[in-house]
Structure formats: C-alpha cells, structure tokens
Amino acid sequence: MSFGIKNKGLEIKLGGGIVLLYLCWALGWIIYSYFMKGNLTAPYNPVPNLKTELVAPFNSNYILGTDVYGRSLLEMLSAGLLYSFGIALLVSLISGFIGLVIGQLSAGDKNIIKIPSDMLTNLIFVFPSILIAILFMSIVGQSFWGLVFVLSFTGWPAYAKIVRTEVLRVKNLSYVECSIASGITSMGLFFKIIIPAVLPVLLVHLFLSMSGVIIAEATLGFLGLGGSEFSFGAGLSSAKTVLLEAPHITILFSLALAGLIMGLNLLGDGLRDFMDPRNKIRAQK
Amino acid sequence: MSLFFNKLMYFLVTVFLSLTLIFFLIRFAPGDPVARILGPNAKMEEISKYREQLGLTRPLHIQYFSYLTGIFRGDLGNSLYSKKKITTLMGEHFLPTLTIAFFSILLAFVFGVIFGTLSGIYKSKTFDHLARFFSITSLSFPVFSLGPVLVYLMAIKLKLFPVSEWGQLKHAILPVLTLVIPLGAIITKVTRNKYLEEVNVPWVEFLRAKGMDDRGVNLRVLKVCMPTILNIVGIQLSVVLAGTMITETIFDIPGMGMLLFESIQNRDYPVIQGIIVYSTIIYMAIYFTVDFINEKIDPRIGQKK
C-alpha cells in the first residue's frame, strides 16, 4: 500500500508543479505587459495587425508566430491564460462562498430554512449547466460579468452539497458538542468551528471545479459566446478555420489548455485522495 | 407510493421548476435581445414594433403561461431567420445528433467499464499505469480542442477518414471518436476507483473463500459498482449533449449543434431557446431514468437520502 500513497504524493507534486508553472507564466505576462510595453490603456491585450497575418513560428519577431488576425500567438496564449485563470478563480470563489452559506443553512436545525435550501441545491444541481450558460450568454452577449454570473449560478450546488455533508459530520464530533454545551453562539460556531473544518474539503473542490469552469468558459468561447476574444475557446475557434494552412496554432492552443486542465485535475485529485480519511486507514493496514 | 410513480412526480416537478427558472433567467437577463437581433442601427420605433410582434410587451404572467403551454404543445413559434416552425427545424436536425450521442455513450460505456475493471484488477501493473495515463491525458483535452487535433492527425496527415461529409457510417467515426475519448476516460477512472473500493469488502472475501473463480467475483463486484458508474454517465450527459453539438460544428454535421451554432451566429434567439429547453427536458428524462434504474439495482441508494 505504501506505493499507492507515494503515488498520490506524486500526483500532488506534478499537478502543483504544472499549476505553479502556469502561475509564473501569467505573472510574467502581467509584469511584461506593464513594464516593457507601457501600454496602460489595454495592458493585457495583444493588438490585431493585418500586415503580420499567420507568420510562421521561430520568426525573429514572433517566437510562436502569429494567428489569423496577425496577433502574436505567444501574447494571445498569455492573455488567454490570464483570462481563463482569472475567470476560473473568480467563479470558483463566488460559487464556493454561496455554497458555503447555503450548505450551512441546509445542514441547520430549522426545517423552514433547511428544506427550501436543500430543494434549491438539488434543483440547480441537476441543471444542465453548460446548456443554460449557452442560452444565457446568447441573450446577454459578450459580457464578462454575465459569464461570471451564469457559471457561478450553476456552480454553487456542488459546493453546497459538500459543505452540507461535512457540516453534518463535524456537528457530531465531541469537541463541537462540547463547545455547543459550553454555550457558543451560532455565529461563533459558524466562524470558529464550521469554517475551519470545512475549508480543506472546500479548497480541494475549488481546484477540481476550476478546471471545470475553464472548460465551460472555453466551450462558450468556441461557440462565440465567451466574455472575451482572448479566451482559449475563441482562439481555437479561429484556429479551426486555418487548420490546413497552420495546424500549429490549433496544437499550441490545445496543449496550453490541456496542460492547465491537467495540472488542476492532478492537484485536485491528489489532494482529495490525500485528505480522504479512508485512505489513511488503508495506509495503516 | 411505488418507486416509479415517485420518480415520475419528482421528474415532472423538477422539469417544471427548471423551465420556470429558465424563463425568468432569460427575462431578467441584462441586455435587450430585440436590440441585438436588429443590430446597433435600429430605430426605437422598429425595436418597439418588433417587441410587439414577438409578444414581449404582454404582461409577464401571460408570457410565462404561453411559454409553458407552447413547450408542451411543441409550438415555440417560428425562427426569426428562416421563418420555419422551430419544432420542424429541430426535427430536421435531430437524427444526426441522436446517432452520434447514442453511439458515443454506448462505446464509451463499454470501453470505459472494460478498461476500468481491467485497470482495477491489474492495479499498479503496466496496464493500469497506461490506462491511468491515457485517462488523465484525454480528460485534459476538451472536445473542441481534441476534435481539430484528431482531424489534423487522422484525416489530413494520415488520410484515414473523410472530413466534413455526412451520410455514411464512416463519416460518423471521427466525431464519435472525439466524444468517446473524454467520456470513456471518465468512465474508466470512475470504474477503476469504485472497483478498488468494493473488491476488498468482507462479502467478496466470503465469495472467494467459498471457492468462486475470479471471473464470477469480478462480475458481482461490477454489478455493485454499476449504480455509481451509471450515475456518472447521467451527470455527464449534459456535457455529452453540449459536446455532441460542438463536435457537429467541427465536423460540419447537419445536426442540432449546427442549428444551434447557426442560430447563435444569426441571433435567432427563439431557436436557441427551443433547442436548450428541449435538450434540458431530454437530459432530465434520462437523468431520472438512470436514477430509477440505480434504485432498482441497489435499493440502499434511495434510503441514503
């Protein structure tokens, strides 16, 4: 069994390494576009230029060549990465927060709050989130906050379910019963006991849901419904039209996206296995 | 109350609530769809006339009522672009989507369960490592990046399959492959984990002690794993539906996805609404069927809730 545990450590290290690498890339891009270009009005946006359409890679000016609109591919990828990462983090944090509150409510004692919040969670959980997002975005149009809203709207029930299970588990532990018996207020219970207990599980799901959000966002971008033209999905959609002439654009976009998703998945899976109490029992055997 | 009736009621209530939620989500979405349809140069009178035509000026409860009855009568109005009835349009495009989605789910299920079980049986052996590597890798490629890569490798480089044609069975191979790879990877992963969870429990050891051979034991373990696997398929179904639609736009297949994509381009928003509403109903019908089958296989599932 020791092999299995070592393997899980490997998953965390590998995933964490990949995610860290992407974070460095994003950070490097922010610093580069702020200090080197000095373009503060549109600091992160590569500029279209029809003169430099589809320049091949390893050119002196463009390391990875340019895309259909003559924008540097490296800059497109960097901007797309920053955008994907930002939206994934924002959506995950918002839906995590809503999930924490609703999950806590649906694990409470009062039926009048418990039953409706439980029903709402289950209803939106079975919602086909990506289909709803397509419909919503086709009405709102290209909008960053619209995208954040609709992805958070369909994303929180998963967190709420996890929080609910975890709160119900924690409430039966003796140290919590002790604090309730010694007269802790319900606010104190929530902030001092529930949140610290739930946070690790919530963080693990954060990584896993981030990759889901990135895929959803890129799907919408591919259909022309994203919040920005720098989305990986939008990039792949425009690369598809020149697949015969310039397949490297499609491949580069795919690899950049796949690496990001893989890193987040590995990190999330590894951390989940690491924290699962059943694995600890198995390891002791 | 019988289980079937119970599930049916739950299904109907969920569908009703979802349709209601979709209606209000659309109505209270920021941005005016009419202004978007007519473009930025439209005059105010034109916009208000168009709103009247679409029935958007009526009171909200009447709009809501006609929306609901329209869905159940199969009458969602006409396309703004081709002026055809929406249900007719969807009927014309339904078959390719159904074919692709059906074969993808079937193949992904068969291969996923087989590979997952084998990977569980040969845990930490070469096969297991290979299967896990492939499932992690293919889960990282969403349909819309895997599709073009496959087209480039299989159709342009190796010239194995034709692209952008539809009508014969061989035209469906590449699109189905695009969908099978990620879905199969998920099923492989879930089957492997669930198999490993179930294979060391006391009753399995009892079966072995009684002298049952490996094949019999594995089949019984697999039966216990089935609800979890089916549940994942059910949850993944909305992703598969969306994936099928996206695959169609990559391979130029005249299915619902193509209709959806064209409607998005033309801002033909009643058609988009129709496709999404009916996809939601189909998705939920299958989701609840899976739930029903699961409880038939393993009655403990119903009691846990």
Question: Could you describe the 3D structure shown?
Answer:
- The complex is a heterodimer of chains A (285) and B (305).
- Chain A has 285 residues and is mainly alpha-helical.
- Helices cover 75% and strands 0% of the residues of chain A.
- Chain A has helices at residues 2-36, 73-106, 111-125, 129-140, 144-171, 174-181, 186-222, 232-240, 247-275, 277-284.
- In chain A, α1 crosses α9, α2 runs antiparallel to α3 and α3 crosses α5.
- The longest helix of chain A is centred in the C-terminal third of the chain and has 37 residues, at 186-222.
- Chain A is elongated.
- Chain A starts with a helix and ends with a helix.
- Residues 1-6 of chain A have low confidence and may be disordered.
- With 305 residues, chain B is mainly alpha-helical.
- Chain B folds into two domains: 2-72, no CATH class; 94-303, Orthogonal Bundle (MetI-like fold), CATH 1.10.3720.
- Helices cover 78% and strands 0% of the residues of chain B.
- In chain B, α5 crosses α11 (256-266) and α10 runs antiparallel to α12 (269-297).
- The longest helix of chain B is centred in the C-terminal third of the chain and has 38 residues, at 214-251.
- The radius of gyration of chain B is 23 Å and the shape is globular.
- The relative contact order of chain B is 0.13.
- The mean pLDDT of chain B is 83.
- The chains are: A mainly alpha (285), B mainly alpha (305).
- Chains A and B meet through α4, α7, α8 and α9 of A and α1, α6, α7, α10 and α11 of B.
